[in-house]
Amino acid sequence: MLCAIYKTRRHAGMYLYLAKRDDFSAVPQALLERFGTPELLMLFNLHGDKPLALADNHSVSQQLQTQGFYLQMPQQEQNLLLAFKLQNNLAAKR
Predict the structure, then answer these.
(1) Rounded to an integer, what is the distance from CA 88 to the centroid of its chain?
(2) What would the DSSP string read from start to end of the chain?
(3) How far is CA 68 from the centre of its chain?
(4) What digits encode the pLDDT tens for the residues 33-76?
(5) Contact indicator for 11, 51 with CB cutoff of 8 Å
(6) In whole angstroms, what is the distance from residue 29 CA to residue 83 CA?
(7) Model pTM score
């Protein structure tokens, strides 16, 4: 299954996958407004040998078939200082 992957300049790491290139009819208007102007990044074969970097090919394919789109959210950056403080019971101490 070939899909179109779009990026946005508004949110780094946010990608919109569509079953058909430039067919945004299944995407809710509110999501499109938040996403901003979609920029075609690439066409990708979900049933090919290459895996997606941050999503499961099979899950994306299923969601495209049922929903018509898949939204990949940016990865949350880990706050290493906070994690260290919590691990060492330093968060409450000041």
Answers:
(1) 33
(2) -EEEEEE-SSSTT-EEEESSTT--TTS-HHHHHHH-S-EEEEEEETTSSPPPSSS-HHHHHHHHHHHSEEEEPPPPPP-HHHHHHHHTT-SS--
(3) 14
(4) 999 999 999 999 999 999 998 889 999 999 999 999 999 988 76
(5) no
(6) 37
(7) 0.77
| Structure tokens given for 78 | 């880990």
Backbone angles phi, psi at 71, to 5 degrees: -110, 120
Residue with tokens 């499109």: 32
Total count of residues recorded for the chain? 94
Closest C-alpha to 15, from 41, 48, 45 = 41
Beta-bridge partner residues of 68: none
